[in-house]
């Protein structure tokens, strides 16, 4: 009888999934739930604004100091000289690395704190808190520059780094909880498109003939956009899913739905279908406790989703040294200062354009195939740069081939890996666990980024391009093997369908008598026995 009940549940799941798929993809539905084109354009404008709000602090902060590396070095050397310390080149490089990589270290703490704010206070309040902290931290950094205190600059960057994961998580959740299923992959590219655009802006303003001649005007220019960001998030409502599922506020959820999808859907069957989906999730999660780190790490399918997401994030680690220190690498292969600065900005432009192109293909091809294929292509370009940059020390003409390899790397990275890594975790878990899982993956990613990014420049000085092979290419090969063996396909699937695929990979670990349990669906969606799936 237990097996019959489980079979009936699976039948109900498949029937519900088919009805949702018909609703999302039927020819009569047009552009998803939109009746008016202006509603779709308004939603995309909201997403673009939130992407700007989220990515300006991280993209601008990290890319501007890349092209303005000489201004940063001059500020550090001058500050310590006034204290009576003369820094040699090696010590200066360590202080610069500490200043830059404090960002990734403190992002770990921000990532671990994010679930508390997001689940307790909501996505909107989390956004407001993150933007307010970012604005205050920029003022702290500006004060540090004016007073000649590098330590105060590090404190300011650290505060921004703590707030950055909170805003990143808010953006991901807004995109996942307000976009129709048929658009979810495309709009999720707003994360990386916004990041790339802000990196281009930071790289351009950080050039010596713009604002990169000194740190004070560079930091001062970031205050007005951050103040505008605070105003933007103030007027954006909470997501309808959070209001209805977490706060049981149906009236507020309807107002939020009208804001994001337009009042053109109000009072029609599409509006009712969307509300029905959210109501179903609320009914399923009624009585459930708030997600926790312990529960996520002790439940097999959530733990596997975290591991797979982290494996994808390992493929992205090599991008961050190029984001922060590409000018340094280009100078090391004997490119001129002006060419190095321009090339650093150019690779960000190419990266951003690649993200735009990638948004048009992400929902046309399987996620798993794209990750594995572009993971191989990206690491091939990185290997080419590692080899060519080493050869450029003895054969100067090869330096342009090394630059071309970096451009190829940015194109392949921007098309798939960079944007997809933001939301692959949230597609494999239920609503209740999304904020916690995203925060865990974000914390692990930033711990790895901090370690590898801090080691890249000193190791590059010692062994040249081989540093990229040791730090990035070898770990990426192991990640690709794990992804190939274990990652399910999530394109066009609801979370519980992906969970079923993950649990099927678990069957061989247990006796046949227990196999029916592993055919069931998400414990947060359809069954009551949470403990049956914790190992």
TrEMBL record:
GO terms for molecular function: hexose transmembrane transporter activity. It is found in: Membrane. Residues 43-491 form the Major facilitator superfamily (MFS) profile domain. Keywords: Membrane, Transmembrane, Transmembrane helix. SUPFAM superfamilies: MFS general substrate transporter. It comes from the Eukaryota. This is Major facilitator superfamily (MFS) profile domain-containing protein. The lineage of its organism: Eukaryota, Metazoa, Ecdysozoa, Nematoda, Chromadorea.
């Amino acid at each position: 009888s237990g097996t019959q009940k489980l079979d009936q549940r699976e039948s109900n799941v498949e029937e519900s999934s088919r009805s949702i798929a018909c609703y999302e993809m039927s020819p009569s539905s047009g552009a998803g739930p939109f009746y008016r084109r202006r509603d779709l354009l308004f939603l995309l404008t909201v997403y673009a604004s939130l992407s700007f709000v989220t990515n300006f602090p991280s993209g601008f902060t990290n890319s501007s100091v890349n092209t303005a590396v000489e201004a940063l070095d001059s500020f550090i050397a001058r500050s310590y000289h006034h204290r009576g310390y003369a820094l040699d080149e090696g010590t200066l490089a360590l202080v610069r690395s500490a200043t830059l990589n404090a960002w990734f270290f403190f992002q770990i703490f921000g990532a671990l704190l994010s679930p508390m704010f997001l689940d307790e206070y909501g996505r909107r309040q989390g956004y407001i808190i993150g933007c307010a902290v970012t604005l205050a931290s920029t003022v702290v950094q500006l004060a540090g520059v004016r007073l000649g205190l590098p330590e105060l600059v590090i404190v300011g960057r650290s505060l921004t780094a703590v707030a950055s994961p909170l805003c990143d998580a808010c953006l991901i959740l807004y995109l996942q909880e307000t976009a129709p299923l048929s658009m979810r992959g495309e709009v999720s590219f707003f994360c990386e498109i916004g990041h790339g655009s802000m990196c281009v802006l930071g790289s351009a303003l950080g050039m010596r003939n713009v604002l990169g001649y000194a740190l004070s005007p560079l930091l001062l220019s970031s205050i007005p956009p951050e103040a505008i960001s605070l105003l933007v998030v103030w007027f954006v409502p909470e997501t309808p899913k959070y209001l209805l599922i977490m706060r049981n506020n149906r009236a507020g959820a309807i107002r939020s739905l009208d804001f994001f999808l337009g009042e053109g859907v109000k009072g029609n069957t599409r509006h009712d279908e969307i509300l029905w989906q959210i109501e179903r999730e609320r009914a399923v999660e009624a009585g459930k406790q708030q997600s926790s780190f312990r529960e996520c790490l002790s439940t097999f399918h959530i733990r596997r989703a975290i591991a797979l997401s982290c494996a994808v994030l390992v493929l992205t680690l090599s991008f961050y040294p190029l984001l922060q220190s590409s000018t340094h690498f280009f100078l090391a292969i004997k490119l001129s200062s002006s060419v190095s600065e321009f090339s650093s900005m150019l690779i960000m432009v190419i990266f951003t354009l690649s993200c735009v192109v990638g948004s048009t293909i992400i929902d046309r091809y399987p996620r798993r195939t794209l990750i594995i294929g572009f993971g191989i292509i990206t690491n091939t370009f990185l290997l080419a740069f590692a080899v060519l940059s080493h050869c450029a020390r003895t054969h100067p003409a090869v330096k342009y081939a090394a630059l071309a390899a970096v451009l190829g790397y940015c194109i392949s990275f921007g098309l798939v890996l960079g944007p997809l890594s933001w939301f692959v975790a949230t597609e494999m878990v239920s609503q209740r666990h999304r904020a916690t899982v995203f925060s865990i993956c974000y914390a692990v990613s930033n711990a790895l980024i901090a370690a590898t990014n801090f080691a890249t420049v000193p190791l590059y000085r010692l062994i040249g391009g081989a540093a990229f092979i040791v730090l990035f290419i070898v770990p990426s090969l192991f990640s690709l093997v794990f992804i190939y063996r274990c990652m399910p396909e999530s394109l066009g699937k609801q979370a519980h369908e992906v969970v079923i695929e993950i649990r099927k990979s678990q069957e061989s670990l247990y006796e046949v008598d227990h196999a029916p349990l592993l055919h069931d669906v998400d414990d947060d969606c359809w069954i009551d026995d949470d403990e049956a799936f914790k190992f």
